[in-house]
Amino acid sequence: MFPIATGQPFGPLPVMPVQAMTQQATRHARRVYVGGLSPTANEQSVATFFSHVMAAIGGNTAGPGDAVVNVYINHEKKFAFVEMRSVEEASNAMALDGIIFEGAPVKVRRPSDYNPSLAATLGPSQPNPNLNLAAVGLTPGSAGGLEGPDRIFVGGLPYYFTEAQIRELLESFGPLRGFDLVKDRETGNSKGYAFCVYQDLSVTDIACAALNGIKMGDKTLTVRRANQGATQPKPEQESILQHAQQQIALQRLILQPQGVPTKVVCLTQALNVDDLRDDDEYEDIVEDMRQEGGKYGALVNIVIPRPNPNGEPAPGVGKVFLEYSDVEGSKKAQAAMNGRKFGGNQVIAVYYPENKFAQGEYDG
What pTM does this model have? Predict the structure, then answer.
């Protein structure tokens, strides 16, 4: 238990039993259940967090000081009971459902001993509609109707990921019914987490299992059902999982920061190797690449390695190297061509070392 002193002295002795009785009688309406806590959560961190966010949203109605007076945590089941000073403050706290605490969303519910009919006589049973939820990243309606047990929380997203890039990653498993990238209200920048729901709800656990824990840029993703812990996909879903993981591997390459810009851009996944064997097809490919690459700057050289006729491995086969006269051209080309589709293939465009390219080393 974590009692927090209110600083208010007790009244005369005869009043104490009445005060205690009142506290006990209203406790069911002054407590909220908070589920889905991280293993590192403790009474102090929960009390401090909820007192802070209650003040931030304007939910404190019982005067100055912390709204939270007591916290009890069940570490094994990862939930807490958070006791507020007043019934009205507990009702306001119900608006915090889904708030991010220590990197993951938590559930805020009424406790099982909550008595609605009795609570209605003690104070408001609904949150004040004028709460400033945007102050804590809970803009009303931001979830876009993404409610229910199949809502997925996607955390640990690099801040430079665009909505389109995140959607493309998630859609490796199928079309989305809803998607919401949470953004800072003032700057419009990503806050690094999102929510989504798939049209086909059966892929929910597959997506969570495949995406959770993978590294994206300088971050590690946390992906799970928003209202519960991780659930493993069923055996019959393994083939879908395997295919999706291959798609994710490709998306990770596309979404990686591409290093220090050079004058040379290397395209992979752009060609079918068999097309490089035929002379006419090869000439067409070179001309297509010259026209496409020339849109972004002055091309100095194009190298498209071909397979050896004797079947021996040849370095760089399947890649396209575009050398520009300056870095500005290569930067425009990399940004425009990375993730684009050519002939049904999704291209990965990266910068290539100029010294290796000059020496004819195409196997990097």
Answer: 0.41
